[in-house]
Design goal:
The structure is a single chain. The protein has about 375 residues and is mainly beta. The chain has one domain: Beta-galactosidase, Chain A, domain 5, CATH 2.70.98. About 5% of the residues lie in helices and about 35% in strands. The chain has 3 helices and 28 strands. A 9-stranded antiparallel sheet has the order 12-13-14-15-28-24-23-18-21, with helices on one face. It has a 5-stranded antiparallel sheet with strand order 20-19-22-25-26, with no helix packed on it. Strands 3-4-5-6 form a 4-stranded antiparallel sheet, with no helix packed on it. It is globular, with a radius of gyration of 19 Å.
Length: about 375
Amino acid sequence: MKMKRISVLLLIVGAITLSGCSSKKTRQENCFRLKAEDFRKTINGKQTNLYFLRNGNIQAAITNYGGRIVGLCTPDKAGKMGDVVLGFNSIDGYLKAKEVFHGALIGRVGNRIAKGKFSLDGKEYSLPLNNKTNHLHGGPGGFHNVVWDVKSTTDSSIVLNYLSKDGEMGYPGNLNVEVCYLLDSKNELVISYKATTDQSTPVNLTNHAFWNLSGEGNGTINEHFLTINADSYTPVDSTLIPLGGNEPVEGTPFDFRDGLAIGTHLDQEKTNTQLRYGPGYDHNFALNKPVVGAMSFAATVVEPSGGRKMEVFTQEPALQFYGGNFMDGADIGKSGKSYQFRESFAIETQHFPDSPNNKQFPSVILMPGETYQTSSIYKFSVIE
């Protein structure tokens, strides 16, 4: 189960991305009406804060609590700025939220691990269950619930570091993780991940921002137009664990190759087993990769009314598309609006669900002496 060594191309991309993250004071002006003082709190002996980034036509707000994207402002076709990431006005908002993954960095292993168990090097490991019968997104004490150290900041970037100690959430090895958020001059949010370990351990890092390109709290995402560059997806059982391998999207509600309004096939939820299990879209898509490990196009989302467009590129082999099926209005966001059913979506670039238990999928095992390194890009523009 040894992870393939990182290609020279991947290392170059990572080096270029991380090179924009040297130390410098960050600007405090922003379009979010957020106050840094509302994000200052001591959690488990560590200080949290809020950091504002800007470059080109986009701005971002990041907190080191969970390494979260608190907000991202980008213009629509009329030039009006809008915050397109769901989130809260304070750390307390995140601590009290029903949905615990808002905007967060996810690890050690994103997505689900069946029954919270996997075997590695002849030893079985047990992880806490936090998604019915399964382990989800690193468990209740995963990376979304820790305070990251701020290694450096610039006007357009922040580098976060976290040492996940041996045995944390049941995982083996001391895992040293570094993540850089960078806004580049091309109106892109670049997220770069890097990790090393002193014992073999599974690693599958991602970000869990919830997006609405109409603006957070501004209604359904079912009219957003989605394209996913994937010829196949991963069917799941009723607990959202993969049944085995992948199946073609052709002829199914999962065929987004030519672009489709997200809500087009949701009326099939009662008759399509996979949509019923979702309920709706909460599935992994195996991306069409011209070169394994290379940066390539993954998805596009367009909000037709305001014209905002988000393109996603990644070095990862897959993405999880989630259509906001479990939002129920319990959380009140930054604008004072409740976050309702199917009013947001997530595109989580990743390896495959339950990979530690499925040899058909690309390995997520990181070994001592290797470096985990991957990047994903979210590019913003408008259509006329």
